[in-house]
TrEMBL record:
Protein's name according to its UniProt entry: Regulator of chromosome condensation (RCC1) repeat-containing protein
Matches recorded under InterPro entries: Ran_GTPase-activating, RCC1/BLIP-II, Reg_chr_condens
UniProt region (Disordered), positions on chain: 415-437
Pfam families, sorted: RCC1, RCC1_2
Length: 437
């Protein structure tokens, strides 16, 4: 997730959502909150009012964590400079005063006192615009066309969005057909002209303003859609509706270039997106998800609430591909204070300090000691006093890492690329400490 945030009056210290925070001065990196906070004018538990800024983030085969001294340490796959070290956690040099971070695929972005800095994969121009090389091995500040430093931003699958002067501006790719020269019908941002998508052409698309979401306080980027949390704590989405990504019933399942409200969602304080699914956390700690359920990532045990994709789309469709065009509440969770949406699974931190996950589990990423797919939440083993969670983004064989109040990090799942931060088997479904932190 890929989401970005800025403070909004009704929410105390609302922060960096997939991924990152707003264009204003920001507080120091958040520590576990022990006093009550105010949400929408009423006193709530600190668990519900905790900031959305992430202190731990996971890509497709690497993980990064923000430590108490505001330094960032990464480990796992380092094919494009994204982790700095495959063997053990290593500090990322050149970063000062980091407030929050995000990761997607093989790239990272962090919010620092000086502004937004990113490094790693730039194949789709998601880091630099205009792009100058395939990857960036060290963090570099992102600059707007006028030369000013971007203050906040969020990574998506192949795109980055920033908050700039009350507007959302994005570049890279969202929703392309992934074939050069073909129409990009599913992109969330377009002029309305058939086949023209000024932000998401094949790749290396120029920086563009996303229409209809001015004033957004968080943004979550999917592969073919984009959602924004608005100042009134509602959510608006645009892009493809083919898998229910827009959170509303649409007769036209192709591209929707005008943002419109997600059905029935109010008092939302956090949004996170995977490629074709989105989840929202409310001020009361509920989690509601919509979009594709191909990997059971909606957390719905009752399949009758879902639409079978093969009944809507002709041709060769995965028989397990089901979706919901409207938000569905994830049952079986305590009040949630933080969440993370991956490609094939979702995890959340409850106000009891435990981590709960659901979805595909082929890599053991749910951390319940098994590799069984879970349609509803299960508690991760060996996790207490958790403050943040990162769901990896490597499809059905992924990983999950949890940041504890003590500063320790525990990870479970696929470990072929060293993403668990320890030696041992290529797959470990039981969470254990990252070594060297």
């Amino acid at each position: 997730m890929h989401r970005l945030t800025r403070p909004v009056a009704p929410i105390v210290r609302l922060g960096f959502a997939a991924a990152i925070g707003g264009c204003v001065a920001r507080p120091a990196a958040p520590e576990p909150i022990s006093s009550a906070s105010t949400v929408a004018g009423s006193t709530t538990t600190p668990a519900i009012a905790a900031p959305a800024d992430h202190r731990i983030a996971a890509g497709e085969g690497h993980t990064c964590v923000l430590r108490g001294d505001e330094s960032v340490w990464c480990w796992g796959r380092d094919s494009l400079g994204q982790s700095r070290s495959e063997a053990a956690p290593a500090a990322v040099p050149g970063l000062l005063g980091v407030r929050s971070l995000s990761a997607y695929d093989a790239a990272n972005c962090v919010v620092t006192r000086m502004g937004l800095a990113c490094w790693g994969d730039d194949l789709f121009g998601q880091i630099a615009m205009p792009p100058s090389r395939q990857f960036y091995p060290r963090p570099e500040l992102r600059r707007a066309p006028d030369g000013s430093v971007d203050q906040d931003g969020v990574l998506g699958p192949q795109a980055t969005c920033v908050l700039a002067g009350g507007r959302v501006e994005c570049w890279g790719e969202i929703g392309s057909s992934h074939v050069p020269g073909e129409d990009s019908r599913f992109g969330p941002i377009a002029t309305g002209e058939q086949g023209v998508n000024p932000i998401t052409g094949w790749r290396n698309s120029p920086r563009r303003v996303v229409p209809g979401i001015d004033g957004a306080v968080q943004v979550a980027i999917g592969s073919e859609h984009l959602c924004a949390l608005m100042p009134d704590l509602t959510v608006r989405c645009l892009g493809s509706a083919r898998h229910g990504q827009l959170g509303r019933v649409e007769r036209d399942l192709e591209a929707h270039h005008a943002a419109a409200p997600v059905a029935g969602l109010v008092e939302v304080v956090q949004i996170e997106a995977g490629p074709r699914a989105t989840c929202a956390r409310t001020a009361s700690g509920e989690v509601h998800c919509w979009g594709s359920n191909l990997f059971a990532q909606l957390g719905v045990g009752d399949a009758s609430k879902l639409i079978a994709a093969r009944t809507v789309f002709p041709g060769d469709v995965d028989p397990h591909d089901r979706f919901s065009p409207v938000p569905l509440r994830v049952e079986g969770l305590p009040p949630v204070r933080q969440m993370s949406v991956g490609v094939s699974h979702v995890c959340a931190i409850g106000d009891d300090g435990r981590a709960y996950c659901w979805g595909t589990n082929e890599g053991g990423q749910l951390g319940d000691g098994s590799t069984e797919r879970r349609a509803t939440p299960v508690a991760m083993l060996n996790v207490e006093d958790a403050v943040d969670v990162a769901a990896g983004k490597f499809g059905p064989t992924s990983h999950t890492c949890v940041l504890l109040a003590s500063g320790k990090v525990r990870c479970a799942g696929h470990n072929r690329r060293g993403e668990l931060g320890r030696g041992g088997p290529e797959l470990d479904p039981t969470p254990a400490d990252v070594e060297g932190l």
